[in-house]
Each structure stands twice: as C-alpha cells, then as structure tokens.
C-alpha cells in the first residue's frame, strides 16, 4: 500500500528484523568486499569502489535466483517505473509530499518490487511502489537526498511473480483512520514522543496530538468508527466525555444501529460553560477579557469555541463598557438599567415598539419612517466591525440613540421612564424602552364599555386609542319617525328596512365592497362605531395581535404600516369612512380591503391540545389561493428560532441543505445565530409557516423537560417575545 500510513505504522516494531533505513541484511562476501575496498583492492561483484551498492544486472548469477526473497539495495538513480505498471505516466498525486516526509523521517519500511531492466531501461524497473519511488525522486530533486541514496527492493525474475506484483499494486487499501489512531496509541505506550511520531508520520505535531487524544477512546468507539457507525467528528465529541464506561455505552448504541445522541452530549458538555460565542464577548473582546484577569481554554480539535474560565471577569468588563456607552440614553426622569441578559418586561409599564405607526398622522409617520431608516443605517454600520475596539464606540452610541428614537416615534407621544440595555451579538448592545400607558380617548372607552357589555372581555382592543378626527357624512341619515310609534312597531319597521337594504346591497357587489371596506376600516383602524348601534353593519373585527409581542417588520408590520398611512390620509380628507372609501380608486380600495381582511386573520394556537382543525383547513385554502410563501419577505430570525430546542434547530439545517459539522458542538445561542444566518443566505423558511405542510409533531414526553429548558435559552433566560408573533 503506497501511502504514509503503509510505510510508517508502529515505529516501535522496526527495531526487530532489518535495521531502520532498509539496508539489506549482510550476506557472505559483504565484509570481504568492504575490506578489499579499504585496502585499495578491486572490490568484488556487486560493490563499487567507494563501497556503495552497485546495480545488479541480468548476468549476475546471484540475482538470477535469489534465495529466500531477500531485499536487494539499489541506488536511487538506477530505478524507474516499469511501463507495464498500470499507473505508468500518471502525474504525482497530492499525497506524494506527505509520503516523502514520512520516508525521510522513518525510512523505507516496505521494500519496492522491481524486475531487471531491459535494453535502454534502468537497471531496475519498479512494478510495485510507484508512489514510493515518486516520493524518493521528489526528495532527490529537492536536494534532500543524494542520487545514490540506497533503496531496498525485491527483485523478481519470474514472469508470474512480476504479473502478481502488478496486480497487487492496484489492490492496496488505505489504512483506516481508526487503525492510525490505534497505532499512535501503541507508539505512545512505547514512550515515543509526539515530536518523534509526527516526524515518522509526516504529520504536524498538532494533528498527532489530536489523534493521540482519540487513542484513549473506549475500544468500542474505535470499532464503531471503523465500522462507519461513528464519524470522526462524533468520535472527537465522545472523547471529551471523561467516563470511559459511558463512552462504551454510547458507542455500543451506535454499533447496534440505534444512532448517536450528539446533541445530548453537546448539551451536557455545554452545561455551565461559558464560551467566546457569548453575546457579551463581542463587546469586550479577547483583549478586554484578558485585561480583566480572564483566562481562556482553547479546544484541542478546533471545533468548539474557546472556553472562558472566568465568568466574573467577563461580566465585570462588559458591565463597565456597557455603562460607558449607555450614557447617551440618559435623560431627566428616565432610568437606564444595564443587564447582560434580556430583561423581563416591566408589568407596571407599557413597552414601546408595539404600535408600529398606528395612531400617527401623516407628519408623524414621516418622522417615524426617517427614524427607522436611521436606526437601520446605524445597525448596518456595525455589522463587520470589531465592537471591542474603542474606535467603534461612537457608532454604537449612534445606534442606541437612533434605536430609542425609532421606538418612541412609532406611536403617539408618551414619556419614556425606563430604558433597559442588554447584550447583543450583532450590535454589541440592544435596548427596550418602557413608559406609562397612554390614555384612551373618551370615545374609545365608551365604545369599549358598550362592547364589554355584550361580549365580556372581547372588547379589550377598544381601549386602544381611537381617532378623534371630525367626520363629515355625505348622505346624513333621515330622522326616525317616532311620534305615535310604539316599541313593537319601531322594531318591525326597522327590521323590514334592514331586510330591504340586505337585498339591495346583495344586488350591487360594488357598493357591498365599499360598505365592507369602510366598516372594517372603522372597526380595525379607527376603532369607531364599536358595539351594537355603532354602525349600519354588524360586522365586528379585530386586528391580530399577541400580548407582549411586537409586530414582525416584513410581515404584519408592513401591513400595519400601510394602514397607518391610510389612516393619515383619511384624517386629512375630513370625510366619513364610507365617503372616503367610495372616493378611492378601485385598485386602492381593493388593496385596502385585502390589508384589512389579512389583518383579521387569527390562527394562533396557545397549546398543542388546542388545534383548530377547521381554521387550519381554511388557512390552507387561503394560502393556496394567494400563493403564500413567507420566505419571499422573511426568513427565520433569532427571536423566532430561540423558542426551538436544539434538536429542531439541527433538523432545520438538514432541511435547508446546510448541515454543518460544527453545529452539533454549538451552544444554543450559537446554533440559533448559525441557523438564522444560513436561512437568510438561502432564502429559506419552514414550509408550515406558509401553511404548505403540517406542523412538526409535538416533542416526546421523555424529551419535554430537557427541551423546555433548552427553549428557555442558553443562559436560562426566557426567550424574548419580540418578533416571535408567529405561533403557527
């Protein structure tokens, strides 16, 4: 077998048999030949005057019938590849340099097989050992060995044996990495140093150390590795477990075909370990952490992030830096809190960032759009920077200020009483803002009270700000004829009139679209006419929302932005909703109807035991009608992915064709960031978010406890609600 492993296995065994360097064993006459050369006499056959080996020839009777198939030594210059070699004429492969280093360090442990040269050929033509000859030739061309370097070879004169040598040349199988690991283990037990092993194998010392770390694996693990039941990366992961008995149990499961619980081992290794992938480390950096007295431990295999051995040093360095940067947020009457973990919402205050432009007039909408653009620009400026470098401090301060300005500008004015600053892997620092709840206009409170009387708690949305803009009706309603009419008669008359309008409206689809659009606009956007008696139509609708969760910008956030702009246009018109909707171009009216209808969807299911089968069936039909594909506008972000256990995240990488050997070794927050990045690169999102496939099955009961803890986040911090509004 022509590879580095073939010629360099078990250096400890080379002390038995022929000496290292592959010089042929002494035969009778060798000592006499050396003596003759030393006394100036003509040397005997097979020895040149300077004592070096002479190339055998066809006429040499000792060569014609070799006894016991002993190797013969040839000068390197007298060797060439036989033309009948099946790989004759092929260029050297990329493994020749490594083989050359191995031969230089360990010598030629396996002699070549040659035949005698014919007319115009070299004295010895290589039948088996072409790659070894190429490696030695490369060393000669580099000036690292001489042209007369002795090469041990078996000389075959029998045509049948020559043919067999040609066949064997092409049937060699490279040594399996498990065999290499076992061989290194034997070398270490023979007290060879890592440097000596590296020199013999032609490997870098680091690579030998990595393989040596695997030599202590349980024998079943190496057996599973050789059988293909474990990958080399999984074997390295298994080697990190200190208990060999546990190694054997897990390797036995893999050998039996029951799979390898990679993510469970990773979760166990990550428990209570702090790595350089921590969000705080992006802001502190290696220099700041070391300056605070922090120590780092690097992974031998280079597969896992560096371990930070001093969490207190990281927290102290991050807090000091965060406090210095957050001074831009200070203002009278405003508290600024610094916490490395994502904070829990303050129950006594109402967060900013949920209104998404709702309730703003045209001028305020322009201000909000400009503030959002400024925050996006500041965020993009931080993307590729070293945030631990002090040169980035002005940009971080700019982002924090722009972010707070955008949050406050997205809704009607109210004071900011609390700003919570926490760590972010993207921008170094992120913030949440809170203030006292805004006061609802009297009209909204009255409407909400009326609705509460009829629907209980269903009128909660009515307490959001309602429009107080004046309304001018195009066709004022005629006063009712109440004189001499009792209650029963009034009911009969209004009932009949209602039925008459039902028929008329049903016969005029265009007018029906106007009435429906106006009613939905009044209820969902203006919050006017709520409750019975608030309008001609009894349609009730509510804009979708999830308590404590902000809109997702590219999804429902974009729809809310459009409706906020329409509200500003309506307020500027001074018309009633019906008159304004009737005056819209048909295309705009249909677009607004689509926006209002879409915002009325509610398919959220709070528990797996509350699956709404009928609603799901309708959602699938609607999705098919409009060709729904969430990936056209949005891919899973960290807020959405953080709610998933690691097993689901790894499955997502497989589904999008982005499996990564490093993924199994990532902490939860590292894996979340990796999945978000790969999804954005590929424009991928789970099919069930587009109602194109069924939801994944609920977790098995045996995994529920572990996965529930996993979903809480890498540091035990509850997953933030922002951006996680998709419950499907």
UniProtKB/TrEMBL annotation:
Residue ranges of domain ParB-like N-terminal in the record: 72-171
UniProt GO cellular component terms: chromosome
GO biological process, one term: chromosome segregation
Higher taxonomy: Bacteria, Pseudomonadati, Pseudomonadota, Alphaproteobacteria, Caulobacterales
InterPro entries: Chromosome_partition/occlusion, HTH_ParB/Spo0J, ParB/Sulfiredoxin_sf, ParB_N
Stated name of the protein: Predicted transcriptional regulator
Residue stretches of biased makeup (Basic and acidic residues): 27-39
Record field: compositional bias (Low complexity): 40-50, 709-728
Pfam families recorded: HTH_ParB (PF17762)
Region of interest: Disordered: 13-60, 699-728
């Amino acid at each position: 077998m022509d590879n580095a492993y073939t010629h360099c296995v078990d250096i400890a065994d080379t002390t038995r048999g022929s000496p290292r360097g592959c010089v042929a064993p002494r035969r009778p006459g060798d000592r006499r030949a050396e003596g003759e050369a030393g006394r100036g006499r003509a040397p005997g056959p097979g020895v040149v005057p300077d004592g070096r080996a002479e190339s055998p020839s066809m006429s040499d009777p000792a060569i014609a019938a070799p006894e016991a198939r002993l190797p013969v030594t040839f000068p390197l210059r007298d060797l060439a590849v036989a033309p009948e070699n099946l790989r004759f004429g092929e260029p050297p492969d990329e493994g020749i340099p490594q083989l050359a280093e191995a031969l230089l360090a360990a010598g030629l442990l396996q002699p070549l097989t040659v035949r005698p040269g014919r007319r115009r050929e070299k004295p010895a033509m290589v039948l088996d050992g072409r790659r070894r000859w190429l490696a030695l030739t490369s060393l000669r061309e580099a000036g690292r060995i001489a042209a007369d370097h002795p090469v041990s070879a078996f000389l075959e004169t029998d045509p049948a044996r020559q043919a067999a040598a040609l066949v064997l040349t092409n049937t060699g199988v490279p040594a399996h990495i498990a065999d290499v690991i076992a061989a290194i283990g034997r070398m270490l037990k023979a007290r060879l140093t890592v440097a000596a092993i590296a020199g013999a194998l032609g490997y870098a010392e680091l690579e030998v150390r990595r393989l040596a770390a695997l030599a202590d694996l349980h024998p079943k693990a190496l057996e599973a590795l050789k059988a293909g039941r474990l990958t080399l990366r999984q074997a390295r992961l298994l080697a990190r477990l200190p208990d060999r008995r546990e190694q054997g149990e897990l390797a036995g499961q893999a050998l039996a075909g029951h799979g390898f619980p990679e993510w469970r081992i990773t979760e166990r290794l990550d428990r209570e370990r702090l790595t350089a992938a921590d969000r705080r480390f992006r802001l502190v950096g290696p220099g700041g952490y070391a300056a605070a007295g922090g120590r780092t431990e690097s992974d031998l295999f280079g597969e896992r992030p560096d371990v930070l051995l001093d969490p207190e040093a990281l927290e102290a360095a991050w807090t000091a830096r965060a406090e210095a940067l957050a001074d831009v947020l200070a203002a009278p009457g405003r508290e600024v809190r610094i916490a490395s973990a994502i904070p829990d919402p303050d129950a006594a205050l109402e967060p900013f960032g949920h209104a998404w432009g709702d309730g703003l007039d045209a001028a305020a909408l322009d201000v909000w759009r400009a503030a959002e653009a400024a925050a996006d620009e500041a965020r993009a400026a931080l993307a590729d920077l070293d945030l631990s470098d002090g040169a980035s401090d002005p940009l971080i301060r700019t982002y924090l200020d722009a972010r707070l300005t955008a949050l406050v500008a997205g809704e009607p004015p109210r004071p900011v009483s609390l700003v919570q600053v926490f760590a972010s892997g993207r921008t170094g620092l992120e913030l949440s803002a809170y203030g006292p709840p805004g006061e609802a206009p009297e009209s909204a409170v009255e409407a909400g009270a009326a609705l509460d009387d009829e629907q209980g708690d269903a009128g909660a949305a009515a307490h959001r700000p309602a429009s107080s803009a004046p309304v001018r009706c195009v066709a004022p309603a005629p006063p009712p004829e109440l004189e001499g009419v009792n209650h029963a008669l009034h009911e009969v008359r209004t009932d009949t009139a209602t039925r008459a309008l039902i028929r008329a409206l049903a016969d005029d689809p265009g007018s029906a679209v106007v009435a429906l659009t106006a009613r939905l606009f009044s209820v969902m956007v203006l919050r006017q006419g709520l409750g019975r008696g608030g309008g001609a139509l009894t349609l009730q609708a509510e804009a979708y929302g999830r308590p404590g969760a902000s809109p997702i910008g590219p999804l429902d956030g974009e729809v809310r932005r459009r409706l906020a702009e329409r509200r500003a246009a309506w307020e500027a018109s001074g018309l009633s909703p019906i008159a304004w909707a009737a005056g819209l171009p048909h295309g705009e009216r249909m677009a607004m109807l689509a926006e209002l209808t879409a915002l009325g969807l509610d398919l959220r299911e709070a528990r797996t035991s509350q699956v709404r089968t009928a609603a799901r069936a309708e959602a699938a039909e609607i999705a098919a009608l409009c060709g729904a594909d969430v990936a056209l506008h949005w891919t899973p972000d960290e807020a959405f992915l953080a709610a998933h256990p690691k097993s689901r995240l790894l499955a997502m990488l497989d589904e999008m064709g982005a499996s990564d050997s490093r993924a199994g070794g990532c902490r939860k927050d590292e894996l979340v960031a990796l999945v978000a990045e790969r999804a954005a690169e590929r424009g991928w999102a789970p099919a069930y978010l587009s109602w194109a496939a069924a939801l994944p099955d609920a977790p098995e009961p045996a995994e529920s406890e572990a996965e529930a803890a996993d979903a809480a986040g890498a540091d035990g911090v509850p997953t933030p609600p922002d951006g996680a509004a998709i419950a499907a």
